[in-house]
Amino acid sequence: MLKVNKLFFTSFLICLFTGLMLLFLNKFLDGNVIWVGKLGNGGQYAEYCELNQFSKFLRQPMNSYSNLAFLFFGISVVGLGISDYRIKNTGNPLFGFPAFSILQGIYFCYLFLGSTYYHASLTWTAQRVDMNATYALTLGLLGYAVYRNALSFIKQEKNLQIVVITALLVLNYLFVYIHLIISSTILLPFLFGLVGIQIAFFLYKNTKKFNTNFLILSIVSMIIAIVVRTLDVKKIGCDPLSIFQGHALWHLLTGMGGYFMYLFYRSEKSFK
User: What's the pTM value of the predicted model, to 2 decimals?
Assistant: First the structure.
């Protein structure tokens, strides 16, 4: 517990420093000078409630700052992965797969960078990076669920781990192009549906081995996030100048949903 608290404190300090840096940049840099290129959806029209401030470095300030949640969770997950590698505890499949935790933590941080880049610049290129990072994190959740099911009939764990990590990296690259062809309104529900199916498979005979409270928290967080985002896009209860923005809350809730899902995977008591 002490190590976990130290890890969270370290994550908090890094996020605090990063947040202060964003505040500094937003105060002194001109967005019209810094950000160039074709505007994305959020720049071409008011996609979200928050007022677009094109003269600022952070053109959507609250929607930018809120991405610090992804950074916090990302550093925490990377830290857990490094701890697993050092301890070499193989009782839980996830403990014995530190490369996944490190990669998934990096994907959280990637989403912090991508989403902050997009809401700061509102450019088309940044929007593509934001979406690719979203798919990376989602594919990671799916990848571990597939790995956990595959362990039931494939005993060569190390070889399987190499295949999973390689597949995640290749798929993330391919999704740079796939998401230009298929809408996120189709792709994301499809991927989450696959995650649900895979989880159902390994929970069927192993329910008591997992702390399903984390799974429930993840699902509830995502449902609330979708509702909040929908209200924000439809401008229901919208105040463009408020520090409380629906899309900012979406960032926090989806970050929590992804982290709770990771903790659900991590909660397995024993496999062998």
Answer: 0.94
Whether 34 contacts 123, CB under 8 Å: no
Buried b (16+ CB within 10 A) or exposed e, 82-94: ebbbeeeeeebbb
CB atoms within 10 A of CB 197: 12
- Hey, where are the domains in the chain? 42-266
For residues 96 and 76, what is the distance between their CA atoms, to the nearest angstrom?
A: 17
The answer to whether residue 179 scores a pLDDT higher than 70 is yes
The answer to whether the beta carbons of residues 93 and 148 sit under 8 Å apart is: yes
Contact of 151 with 202, CB cutoff 8 Å: no
272, pLDDT greater than 70: no
Tokens of 36: 């160039």
Mean pLDDT, the chain, rounded, equals 93
SS3 track for 92-103 = CCCCCCHHHHHH
What three-state secondary structure class fits 56?
Answer: strand
Contact between 157 and 96 (Cβ < 8 Å):
yes
